[in-house]
Design goal:
With 302 residues, this protein is mainly beta. Strand 11 (125-135) and strand 12 form a beta hairpin. The protein is 2% helix and 59% strand. The longest helix is centred in the N-terminal third of the chain and has 6 residues, at 2-7. Strands 2, 3, 6, 7, 10, 11 and 12 form a seven-stranded mixed sheet that branches. Strands 15, 17, 18, 20, 21 and 22 form a six-stranded mixed sheet that branches. The radius of gyration is 26 Å and the shape is elongated.
């Protein structure tokens, strides 16, 4: 029985390390099983270099038809789980066919890699970057090892960032004017604004501001839209009067936000909205939604 169990064990251990792994920033990523793991952080145009170590288990040798390492950028739709769409695919051949008897190290390097999209994990889709090492074998089946890494890309301050001003209302019942200080926010920004009541003839109980994320996957008739409320912030508790102005001050730092993603590889989009919600004494809800753009601003390092 032990012989049968041993026959299905892999013939070797494969490890992948990055050249600057000890000094590079690590960020937490949630795995499929819900566990958090720390992965190294890169950005587009960086060189990704490191070492692949293959160590046969004691008393075993590894016969192979070649060893290679691939750098892959992949999109996976959860309704099509297991099928990856590769938008980036680079390969380095590490070894010609032969045999490995003892621990062997292979250096690799991918220079100034174009990684146009950020790592993203959503409700119905994920975008990931991974190093994939394959020890190609025939009858025994190839041995494969993966090592994920995270990509974040940064944007400069937008040259034009207009404020948002809108008037909404119900004829002869409610007329409000709201204003947000800008339409584009970085992920650690503060949303400032005000809500001004021009006409109030219904009894408002409270007013909230929500941040909503809308994730669209697929295309055409197969488009699937998922909306999440990420934050709910109470602006007012109690009835407003005509002429009253309610300030808005919402910090974005506490929330799990990503940049706005527009039509990523024709597979998915992620948009963000500010949703102003008013509730009257009969629990009727009145709301007005406004799209905003989120971007990642490079953090200052001292």
């Amino acid at each position: 029985m032990n012989y049968i169990r041993g026959a299905f064990k892999p013939a070797c251990n494969i490890s992948i390390t990055f050249t600057d792994g000890k000094n590079r920033k690590q960020v937490p990523v949630k795995k499929d099983n819900g566990q958090m793991v720390m992965n190294p952080l890169f950005q587009s145009q960086e060189t990704i270099a490191g070492k692949v170590c293959i160590e046969p288990y004691q008393g075993k040798k590894v016969e192979h038809n070649g060893v290679k390492v691939e750098l892959l950028g992949q999109i996976e739709m959860y309704f099509d789980r297991g099928n990856f769409y590769d938008f980036t695919s680079l390969v380095r051949e590490l070894d010609v066919p032969g045999e490995i008897y003892e621990k062997k190290a292979y250096p690799f390097e991918f220079s100034t890699v174009e990684m146009p999209y950020e790592t993203y994990s959503g409700v119905n889709v994920r975008l990931r970057y991974v190093l994939k090492v394959t020890v190609t074998r025939g009858y025994a089946g190839s041995i494969v090892e993966y090592h994920d890494f995270v990509v974040r890309n940064y944007s400069p301050l937008p040259p034009i960032n207009n404020s948002i001003k809108m008037e909404v209302g119900i004829e002869d019942c409610l007329h409000i004017e709201f204003e947000y200080n800008k339409s584009k926010y970085h992920l650690k920004d503060v949303i400032l604004g005000k809500v001004y009541f021009l006409l109030v003839r219904i009894k408002i109980k409270n007013m909230d501001l929500e941040i909503r994320r809308r994730e669209s996957t697929g295309a055409g008739a197969n488009t699937h839209v998922e909306t999440e409320t990420l934050a709910k912030f109470e602006l007012m508790d109690g009835a407003p009067v005509r002429g009253e102005s309610i300030p808005v001050r919402l910090f974005l730092t506490p929330y799990d936000l990503t940049p706005t993603h527009k039509n990523i590889n024709n597979k998915f989009s992620v948009k963000y909205y500010l949703n102003l919600v008013l509730v009257d004494e009969e629990d009727r809800r009145y709301f007005k939604q406004q799209e905003i753009t989120l971007y990642r601003l490079k953090e200052e390092t001292s």
